[in-house]
Automatic annotation (TrEMBL):
InterPro entries: FAD-bd_FR_type, Flavoprot_Pyr_Nucl_cyt_Rdtase, FNR_nucleotide-bd, Globin, Globin-like_sf, Globin/Proto, OxRdtase_FAD/NAD-bd, Riboflavin_synthase-like_b-brl. It comes from Paraburkholderia acidiphila. Residues 3-140 form the Globin domain. Its EC number is 1.14.12.17. It is an enzyme of class 1 (oxidoreductase). This is Flavohemoprotein. Is involved in NO detoxification in an aerobic process, termed nitric oxide dioxygenase (NOD) reaction that utilizes O(2) and NAD(P)H to convert NO to nitrate, which protects the bacterium from various noxious nitrogen compounds. Therefore, plays a central role in the inducible response to nitrosative stress.
């Protein structure tokens, strides 16, 4: 690998403001250009994110961050790990990186033209090679530790409705072998052919059970589409087109948002909506391991109709003295029983549950909409919780 010279590093860093201003234009053109030359890559990239513009915008931010920190790549450590897990779950391989690099640099030339000179382009070529090697090396370690390679056929052995929006799928390996292990909090990618798009589409779903090797369980929210948001292609296919006995193709579990099972200190699990799925896996694992750790399960949802795993949580609290809960309903129905179905009306307010969540040396796991996680994180930090003990899961675009 060619090393970046001091001049090249300075040139890359100097282009960071350009990506701040023109990055989304460049990355949108990049995807259009790459898909025209390699239409088979549409099977890897989320086409809904392409249409909404979220994928190009995320890539633009990633390129900006890389350029701005080219002289201090240690600052990108968390982002590199996060993206590597996403890549590995999508089966991104070393041969994909030269394709991306060629069309990304080509898009820079197409959009900026004479505004970028050849020495700067040469610097970016070396910088991209450096980044590609970092990603390839990180992903290689993930593949080495994975339970299997690529997408593996699983048979749907059971389909269970959890709420008006969420349905669980119990997936057993089609070959009858072990389903393998995973860390609670991890996710898998499931790929389905979408007729409307004419391509396979992967989607990532958190595992929602404890690891035991017999099956994997994912719990899928039907994305009906609201406002400007389009209905979810794959989630609707899963709900309406995948029945018991069907075969789906699944990646090995990935994800760095995982429960630290070695600790004995308290755990606070905070979720909003479908963000409950990895929390269900974490709590199920603690119960299966007969952990004595103090656990507080905090969950928010719109109403009882969309409250998944309600019976499970109620049973866990009644059977295990170390497990507490705080369930918030934005809309309380006439038949909803406070203390049984829910605990508080309204949105999560940590001020109302401080005694149960502000625990010495606790670790906090947050999953839900980005605004929800940001709000809870800020509320915890404001009350003296060390940010290093707050862990979040963010799904979405992250492809380099």
């Amino acid at each position: 690998m060619t090393a970046l010279t001091a001049d090249q590093m300075a040139r890359v860093k100097a282009t960071a403001p350009v990506f701040a201003e023109h990055g989304a234009t460049i990355t949108k053109h990049f995807y259009k250009r790459m898909f025209a030359a390699h239409p088979e890559l549409k099977n890897i990239f989320n086409q809904t994110h392409q249409q909404s513009g979220s994928q190009p915008e995320t890539l633009a931010r990633a390129v900006y961050a890389y350029a701005a920190n080219i002289d201090n790549l240690g600052a990108l450590g968390g982002a590199v790990t996060h993206i590597a897990h996403k890549h590995a779950s999508l089966n991104i391989r070393p041969e994909h990186y030269p394709i991306v690099g060629r069309h990304l640099l080509g898009a820079v030339v197409d959009v900026l033209g004479d505004a970028v000179d050849q020495p700067t382009l040469d610097a970016w070529a070396v910088a991209y090679e450096q980044l590609a090697n970092i990603m390839i090396g990180t992903e290689a370690k993930l593949y080495e530790g994975a339970s299997w390679s690529g997408f593996r056929p699983f048979k749907v052995m059971r389909k269970q409705v959890e709420s008006d929006e969420i349905t669980s799928f119990y997936l057993a390996p089609a070959d009858g072998a072990s389903a393998g292990g995973f860390e609670p909090g991890q996710y898998v990618s499931v790929t389905r052919f979408v007729d409307k798009l004419g391509v396979d589409q992967p989607r990532q779903y958190s595992l929602s059970d404890a690891p035991h090797g017999k099956w994997l369980r994912i719990s899928v929210k039907r994305e009906a589409g609201r406002g400007e948001a389009q209905p979810g292609h794959v989630s609707n296919l899963m709900h309406d087109g995948v029945e018991e006995g069907a075969v789906v193709h699944v990646s090995a579990p990935m994800g760095e948002f995982t429960l630290d099972r070695k600790k004995t200190t308290p755990v606070v699990l905070m979720s909003g909506g479908v963000g409950i799925t990895p929390m269900k896996s974490m709590l199920s694992t603690l119960i299966a391991e007969r952990s004595k750790r103090e656990v507080t399960f905090v969950h928010a949802c719109r109403n009882a109709k969309v409250h998944a795993f309600r019976d499970f949580l109620r049973h866990a609290v009644s059977e295990y003295p170390n497990v507490k809960r705080a369930v918030f309903y934005e809309e309380v129905g006439a038949s909803d029983r406070q203390g049984v179905d829910y605990d508080f009306e309204g949105r999560i307010d940590i001020g109302r549950i401080e005694a149960d969540v502000l625990l010495p040396d606790a670790d906090y796991y947050l999953c839900g909409p980005v605004a929800f996680m940001r709000e809870q994180r800020e509320a915890l930090v404001a009350r003296g919780v060390d940010a290093s003990r707050i862990h979040t899961e963010i799904f979405g675009s992250g492809m380099l």
